[in-house]
Amino acid sequence: MEPIAFFDAKPYDQVWFDKLNTQYQIRYIGDRLSADTAHYARGCRAAVAFVNDKVDTDALISLKENGVEIVLMRSAGHNNVDVACANDLGITVTTVPDYSPHSIAEHAMALTLALNRNIHRAYARIREFNFSLNGLNGVDMYGKTMGIIGTGRIGRVLADISKGFGMNVIAYDPFPNMNLGVKYVRLDELFSASDVISLNCPLTEESRHMLSDQAFERMKPDALVINTSRGALIDSKALLKALKTGRIRGAALDVYEEESGVFFEDASWKRDRDDVLSLLIALPNVIVTSHQGFLTDEALSGIAGSVLTSLDQFFSGSTPESAITEKKEYAHV
Ligand code: NAI
């Protein structure tokens, strides 16, 4: 059986890979992939990685030296992978573009509703036997404007869910989908017209810190900001300022720009905590979840199935359909 190095392995990943895998000897490695850990893949031609692995030049060179020919991301995003370097080194990189977009879109709406109606605060209060309603009021979502930034797979589902709530949906995307039945607007217009702003676009050099001081300045004071995409789409310090000065009503974050090493882990023992994250978490109008948008059975089984299919395609000598590196012929088969 072909050995596969599986980095940043968590029990919830293993359940689905073990259920669906019949072909490979999967070496589950708890550590995240980086230049320091890449040598754990020695003897494997394939390495499986996740969103907070550091698949940079040094890691890729080390993987290559250790015999790895393909890196399979268990995610749709690949901002943590130096794809150009992988191309130069002849390493194939695949992603999982198509696992349940519903899981993330539903999580975005769950965060929106919880934040709007202060469910997180009600839950904490009632555990103290405090049944007061003071300060817990929200607004109806019906008739409000949902502004979606990025109308790809997830953004589209969120648009449909939002319409189901009777919301007016507007969107910004450099590649609009005219069949979606939403009104596309300029980004600055979306900022000023939306009651809820949901980030559903990839992190690129262009989109990094797209929610900056200037963006928050344009928003309605009642706006809710929801980020289930990638942390660095938001300038976290600017967000903290906007929340503390009442520029916006609240924020719900499933991702954070410095989440690596903290999210997905029990960091409760850590004293050296990220200051901005600590301050954000302490605010009553902020909800943070630990990058769990993908955490449904459907998404996890979809991820495992897609990675295993890419492995099958690779080991049978074809370029996996989900490759984001240049297509090439495999001389080794
Ligand atoms: P997708 O590739 O189907 O759609 C992305 C859309 O964003 C495209 O329509 C694209 O044209 C648009 N876009 C690109 N640059 C943009 C910009 N600067 N401004 C506005 N729109 C822009 O991607 P999908 O599957 O919808 O995923 C979106 C993002 O969600 C991923 O890039 C990933 O970062 C994040 N994600 C988060 C998960 C979680 O567990 N929280 C799980 C899966 C994905």
Please describe the structure with a list of short key phrases separated by commas or semicolons.
single chain; 333 residues; alpha/beta; Rossmann fold; 2 domains; seven-stranded parallel beta sheet; five-stranded parallel beta sheet; 14% strand; binds 1,4-dihydronicotinamide adenine dinucleotide
Question: CATH topology of the largest domain, which one?
Answer: Rossmann fold
CATH class of the largest domain: Alpha Beta
Instruction: Give the CATH H-level superfamily of the largest domain.
Output: NAD(P)-binding Rossmann-like Domain
How far apart are the first and last residues' alpha carbons, in Å? Answer: 16 Å
Q: Count every helix, treating DSSP H or I runs of 4 or more residues as helices.
A: 11
